[in-house]
Amino acid sequence: MQYVFQFGPILDRWPEFLYGAARTMELTASSAAIGFVIGIAGALGRSFGPPPVRKAIGVYVEIIRNTPLLVQLYFVFFSLPLLGLRLSSDQAAILALSIHLGAYATEILRAGVESIPSGQIEAAKSLGLKRGQIIRHVIVVPAVRAVYPSLTSQFILQLLGTSIVSAIAAEELTAIANNMAMQTFRNFEIYIVIAVIYFVLVRLCDLLFRLFSHVLFRWKT
Amino acid sequence: MSLREFGLPEFYFLLLSARWTLLLAIVAFVGGGALGLVIAALRVAPAAWLRHLAGGYISFVQSTPILIQLFMVYYGSAFIGLRPDPWPAAAITFCLNSGAFFGEIFRGAIESVSKGQWEAAKSLGLRYLATLRLVIVPQAMKLSLPPTVGFMVQIVKTTSVASLIGLSELSRTATAINTMTFEPILVFGTVSAIYFAMCWPLSVLGRHLERRLGDGRQRPVEL
């Protein structure tokens, strides 16, 4: 039997694809923002915290980096209600994605923090900068700048990773595609369209991150 | 109310299902590694169109989610008149996917070998493929070892996605047992521990090799 492509009925439903793409970007952006904050805190704690804190952060990073995102997602989605925390699919998805990214961001930013020569911090101290000022201007901003390429490629991997949350029926591009496939049975066509959309989103983000770096890091080192 | 308790039989059942995870990971490693060699050779080929072809392939694989690639292969089998079957679909997808990543790893290693080696081989009268096989690849192999081991961790973790087309590996078995026992903390805790036991030694080995053999550059290849 010859397979006949029918893209027409699929492409007619473009508003749903658009909505899904927006939801995917929303999930990516919110989990990236939370994950980034976890990463900054984690990297600072890992480099400057007391030994037990360093150890605890190390364990968190190793556990997350050596288990699949899908299992982390299931754990959050199914276990937290037992502990009395009721979460919607979307909330569980954001939580799991943030915890996931937080571990990778910690590891990436730690490399950035470690790249800062201790002389810089000593110089800042002797200039009379306050603790908060040193952390912000001498450690965090230069550290982020140093690892900016790794960090942004991690954000892009996060964008691709969000497709996994369709497994708990959180609303995003892949879940919308799955629903549409069940209604129309044009699975192959639908996933081809979805692949193209993800590809465009990834390229767009890549471009945006490049533009950002010009705006954010204008000063010379 | 749960249908049954989470006891030793359930634990063994989970442990046993990990062999399908391992099998799929080994298939992806062997098949993807072989494909990666071909792709790396194309990426540094003398003909520009071959380089662009391989580059486009890598770009597609790295810019779309593996889950969507898996769905495309799974439902695309109807396109060539076959019934969708989880195992062949997963095996093909994971080979094609890891082939692109291995291609990039090997290309990086090949390009780290100094240009003088190519010139020396050329002056000795070796052709392109012979140069690769006899001169470049043996030297590049050492450099590509740390990122290759690191990527194996990635493969093991990514196989969990195959559960979403119904392949009964570790993650799929976990959701089934969770439905029966309703002990998510025990079930997914155990499953996490099994994945960790497979991945962590590789992670440690990868870092060790990176320190011993690596060129010190960071290569982000993580999901």
Short description:
By secondary structure, chain A is mainly α.
Number of domains of chain A: 1
CATH top level assignment of chain B = Mainly Alpha
What characteristic shape of chain A results from the CA principal axes?
globular
Written as H for each helix and E for each strand, in order along the chain, the element string of chain B is HHHHHHHH
Task: Assign a percent range to the helix content of chain B.
Answer: over 70%
CATH architecture of chain A: Orthogonal Bundle
* Backbone CA Rg of chain B: 21 Å
Q: Into which percentage range does the β-strand content of chain A fall?
A: under 5%
CATH superfamily of chain A: MetI-like
List the quaternary state of the chains.
heterodimer
Sheet/helix structural class of chain B? mainly alpha
Give me the secondary-structure topology.
The complex is a heterodimer of chains A (about 220) and B (about 220).
Chain A: H1 8-11, H2 14-48, H3 51-65, H4 69-79, H5 89-114, H6 118-126, H7 131-161, H8 173-184, H9 187-216
Chain B: H1 8-43, H2 48-62, H3 66-76, H4 86-112, H5 115-123, H6 128-158, H7 170-181, H8 184-213
Descriptive overview:
Chain A has helices at 8-11, 14-48, 51-65, 69-79, 89-114, 118-126, 131-161, 173-184, 187-216. Chain A is mostly helical. The N and C termini of chain A lie far apart (64 Å). Chain B is mainly alpha-helical and 223 residues long. Chain B has a single domain (8-213), classed as MetI-like (MetI-like fold, Orthogonal Bundle), CATH 1.10.3720.10. Chain B has helices spanning 8-43, 48-62, 66-76, 86-112, 115-123, 128-158, 170-181, 184-213. In chain B, α1 packs antiparallel against α6 (128-158) and α4 packs across α6. Chain B is elongated, with a radius of gyration of 21 Å. The relative contact order of chain B is 0.16. At the A-B interface, α3, α4, α5, α7 and α8 of A face α3, α6, α7 and α8 of B. Chain A: The chain crosses the membrane at residues 27-48, 157-178, 190-212.
